[in-house]
Write a structure and sequence with these properties.
29% of the residues lie in helices and 21% in strands. It has 420 residues and is α/β, with parallel strands linked by helices.
């Protein structure tokens, strides 16, 4: 179930690091090692700690015996309920401390470095979180059906035209890197995903034949022109492109999605998008660092055609951005979007409340806001990356009962249902 090589710090550091990762207690019994306790704890010679289920103990030990290594294999302890890490040797406790205290000591150097390198407020919030022994961890609250589904199919229903695959433009600019995941997600949702570059559009390609547009994440122009801003300006300052995009957004039979870099780009051309005038811009993360994490979000509104039937759901998603903090042109814009249910996605903590502190709120956006839709729900922008985690195997954590697809597949199925 877990493995860690014994290296710097010896056995003590090795098992403590395993406990930190799982936020659990440990009960360690060192008698089987039959050696001086200090030498056992701090010996840095070649070795490893392996965790197995109790029912697997015999076959694991048999495997070591078969390899003529049984003399080097010892049973030394097990994870324990509670917050304590305890080592005993010949009936005597030789080390006993709260796991949270050990974890903060272990993280102290990193914390001091982080305070100097990053925003010290964010560094302090992340460090203080270690001491919270009641934090429940990631969770999943789903109020809709998202499976089982098979690859490349769309959900059955009277509104789906079986055999038809509407065309969606998977839009990218120089430096964008998320087009493959986005294409795969919409392909599984029942679309004909077409790779479209800005160069194609400059060369005369028109969006007339597409019913969907997905602006992908990445680093357009290396972000040297501002995240997504250069991409947006290449549309606004080219009269033919500006007219083409405006015409696409105004067609009542189209929808659009902007993710991360694409979210920033679509926000910068919001005046071409009906009902998007109050959308915010996106500026440097409060942490002053690029944030790549699996975090909790809540779908707060189903006004977006992508989020139909999903309001109230809370589950993890991937984020990867350096400039994702929401910034409104006017304070009233946030209130307007809230009243009209155009604020549709927000970061939440592991207890389900709107996330204010780092790292549950990775960019520092007020109220955890991170996704918005147009007044008619046809255009949606968000900072997280649902296309990177629409398959269960792509999630670093997920409930055991999920099938091939995570709940994020539903937004792509919703798009397909809306087109019909």
């Amino acid at each position: 179930m877990a493995y860690h090589d014994r290296s710097d710090g010896g056995l003590l550091a090795t098992v403590c690091e395993m406990a930190f990762a799982s936020r659990c207690g440990l009960a360690m019994r060192l008698d089987a090692l039959d050696a001086d306790s200090l030498a056992v704890l701090f010996n840095e010679e070649l070795g490893a700690v392996i965790q197995t289920r109790r029912r697997d103990r015999r076959p694991v030990l048999a495997a070591f015996e078969h390899a003529d290594l049984s003399a080097l294999c010892h049973l030394i302890g097990y994870p324990a309920a509670g917050n304590n890490i305890e080592f005993t040797f010949k009936g005597n406790a030789i080390f006993k401390k709260p796991r949270s205290e050990c974890h903060q000591l272990w993280s102290q150097t990193t914390w001091h470095m982080q305070r100097m390198r990053d925003n010290p407020v964010c560094a302090g919030q992340e460090y203080a979180r270690i001491a919270d022994t009641t934090e429940p961890g990631l969770f999943c609250h789903i109020n809709f059906d998202h499976g089982p589904h098979t690859g490349g199919t769309v959900p059955a229903g009277p509104r789906i035209s079986v055999g038809t695959r509407p065309k969606i433009a998977i839009l990218r600019e120089q430096g964008v890197n998320g087009q493959m995941e986005m294409a795969a997600a919409f392909d599984c949702g029942g679309f004909d995903a077409v790779d479209v570059t800005m160069t194609d559009l400059l060369d005369g390609l028109r969006l007339d034949g597409y019913q969907g547009l997905a602006a992908c994440g990445g680093f357009s122009f290396g972000d040297v022109l501002g995240a997504g801003q250069g991409w947006g300006k290449s549309i606004l300052f080219n009269p033919r492109l500006k007219v083409g995009f405006e015409k696409f957004f105004n067609r009542s039979d189209t929808f659009s999605l902007g993710v991360c870099n694409g979210c920033q780009m679509m926000s910068s051309i919001k005046h071409l998008i009906p009902g998007a005038a109050h959308w915010p811009g996106f500026v440097r993360n409060h942490s002053e660092q690029y944030e790549s994490r699996l975090v909790m979000v809540e779908i707060t509104s189903d006004k977006s055609v992508l989020f139909h039937g999903m309001a109230g759901a809370k589950f993890p998603v991937a984020v990867a951005h350096g400039e994702g903090r929401v910034k409104f042109d006017h304070a009233a814009s946030a209130q307007m979007l809230g009243r009209q249910k155009q604020s549709c996605l927000r970061f939440v903590d592991n207890r389900g409340a709107a996330a204010q502190d780092y790292p549950h709120n990775p960019n520092g956006s007020e109220g955890g806001l991170t996704g918005f839709t147009s007044d008619d729900g046809r255009s949606t922008i968000m900072m997280p990356h649902p296309e990177r985690v629409f398959r269960t195997v792509s999630n670093s954590w997920h409930p055991d009962h999920w099938g091939e697809y995570s709940p994020w597949i539903k937004i792509f199925h919703n798009a397909r249902s809306w087109v019909d």
